[in-house]
């Protein structure tokens, strides 16, 4: 039985509240499935640390973290303390790039017990993956200002796409689609408006599609694709998108499936050269912090994805993942639920209930 | 009674099918409200013209069009004939920039009779405006490729925001919010990811907000904003956004309100230095072209917006706008409807019915 060394980085706001529940469930799963998880708490990568040190993380963050098998991450950001672009570029976005976690994998699934904001949808109707490029593209801090403070002020920001960056995310997405029963891949584009980057993206999709004759491949401009998430979510199987479009789709998708409070994500370095990172899709939500009402399910589901990835197809790990998912489903149906889902339970009530169901 | 000179540009695909219905309704409204509309048909700005001439429009398009009071536009693009970025950058996007139509105004409204894809929403619950910047930002053809065709291939595209461009769209949006009963403005951002352009956008929003103390102003990152369109559309009143974010929100909004088939838009040069352009939100939909089943209501509603804008607050024009809206509502409730709305009527059946209702 191999030991998995996991860095626990709660971050800011409700990240700190949902993390204990994630750990509680992971500990229970480790117990039941005889997994060896070793947790190390990291108390930086949060805005209070920034206020004390002028940086979100110590200079040797990379050295400190690179030996872990995974990072279990809560959420970062507290705009009243530190502007978002400073806190996020100083933490989460550094992890994604520094550890080359180029795949952001986000399941979108209508779960039993969850009221769907879309009319007449039932469990099974919404069940797909958003595969988001996670290191380049529109997320950039390259550019600047000219004529600052004057009427002529002009701000330029670059989006940067590389063949390596585009091809590897497409390959991951096509491989995933190939393994799924429907074998259907949808690519998000906006080549009619963003006239340089997106035609390139489309070109690489076409080139990659040639190697996957069994995968049915289509593309939509991001505007109409968002509309279709609402109007016909049953159409989708694997949706591949650039960094920004993937970000949008992976909040919109979970919203269509009821709530982003339960949505998980995996920031993967598929080659395992570096630790991968697992975090809920929701953010740090300073407005509800401190009341113990945050929904811990996104954090817990992300923990299940972590076990699955760490196990690399090993049966016990796969079983642990599935058991956590079943326990989540049970609690979604029977309660207790946090207020965001219409219940009156606390964050820890839900965590405890999922452990029980396990 | 002043004459309004209107250039009629059907464009491609279903643009050619919905245009006659738009004109039919405008003619009826002109008749009833004693307006003087003079139409001139423009047979370029379409992909067939491109195939013949190697350009979407003649070199003197600007000279030919600049004297009109408005452009009534169908849709452009036919990807099997001409790649989208060529057809759109060669037509619609040239109009928007050349004629400095810097406001793209798009009402999002749940109309009577339209089944809503969101559960438990009724008429009145969704009623807001997307105010989209329409000339700069992420829509750019500035940038290029390096190491073309090699493993190192790198593609760079610039987003460009100017103080003039940002401030004037914000001013338009704040003015609009100020005139609405709720006086609520929401700004779309993504300053946590796009670390140069969007913090600038936020800064200008804050500066502008200082001049509008009565307007309640908030901001959301685009990912969570899309989620909220689905989860709580009743929160919104005026939503202001950059070119790309506005594009996304103004397809997603109408989808949440039932269909983009009926959604209108106004590309405005508020100073009236140049003609403004009125077009449905939907595109040219080559897949359904030629069957006379396209929904003409987006085109017709855009015509109503055109009358309103041309009249500059004149009573007869305002009455004509309102009467067309009432006629649309009547037909949405009583039919006939095109197949996209569950009916079996043709494009022209719907146009004729709206004329009757008028
Ligand atoms: C056709 C396309 C270039 C256009 C845009 O993205 O602006 C359309 O989607 C719109 O919303 O008017
Ligand atoms: C917090 C933010 C930088 C982040 C992103 O945009 O990637 C978040 O929205 C996400 O989806 O993980």
Automatic annotation (TrEMBL), chains A, B:
Name all Isopropylmalate dehydrogenase-like domain ranges: 5-354
Q: Which organism is it from?
A: Accumulibacter regalis
Q: Which UniProt keywords apply?
A: Manganese, Metal-binding, NAD, Oxidoreductase
Top EC class per UniProt?
oxidoreductase
Q: What is its EC number?
A: 1.1.1.83
User: What is this enzyme's catalytic activity, as reactions?
Assistant: (R)-malate + NAD(+) = pyruvate + CO2 + NADH
Q: Which family does it belong to?
A: Belongs to the isocitrate and isopropylmalate dehydrogenases family.
Entry-linked SMART domains: Iso_dh
SUPFAM superfamilies, alphabetized: Isocitrate/Isopropylmalate dehydrogenase-like (SSF53659)
The GO terms describing molecular function are: D-malate dehydrogenase (decarboxylating) (NAD+) activity; magnesium ion binding; NAD binding
Q: Which cofactor does it need?
A: Mg(2+); Mn(2+)
Q: Which residues does UniProt call coiled coil?
A: none
Answer yes or no on keyword NAD: yes
According to UniProt, the name of this protein is D-malate dehydrogenase (decarboxylating)
